[in-house]
Amino acid sequence: QVQLVESGGGLVQAGGSLRLSCAASGRTFSNYAAGWFRQAPGKEREFVAAITWSDGTVYYAESVKGRFVASRDNAKNTVNLQMNSLKPVDTAVYYCAARIGGGYYFRQDEYDYWGQGTQVTVSS
After folding, report:
1. N or C, where is the chain less crowded by C-beta within 10 Å?
2. How much is the average pLDDT of 8-25?
3. Which is nearest to 109 in space by CA: 47, 39, 56, 27?
């Protein structure tokens, strides 16, 4: 099993940046695909980015492509999400997730392990 803990959320003005981190423990994180999701008040949880186990390549939701950069550091058992040019619509609780697998996974029900979430608030 894997335990995930997100950190780095906070309050930022539109156009600013935040860097989220997800620390994994329990088992080697290098054997797991990872993903980032977010959930805004009154809305369903949505996909943000997926990172493969095989080579660490990333697939992004169109809403964040070009602004967010996801990465993983298997040696440190961490997954990161660098968020730039933030918009008020990005306001949400951000979650990292993981599962055993070598491909991309875009649905929340495809993931087995979840962090507790970290709040990101973008003011206009």
Report:
1. N
2. 96
3. 47
Q: Which structure tokens are listed for 113?
A: 């392990």
SS3 readout for 23-69: EEECCCHHHEEEEEEEECCCCCCEEEEEECCCCCCEEECCCCCCCEE
Q: Contact, 45 vs 95, CB < 8 A?
A: yes
14: number of CA atoms within 13 Å, CB side?
Answer: 5
Structure tokens at 75: 């040696």
Collapsed DSSP state (helix, strand, coil) of residue 109:
helix
Percent of the chain with pLDDT over 90: 76
Average pLDDT over residues 81-98: 97
d(CA 122, CA 44): 19
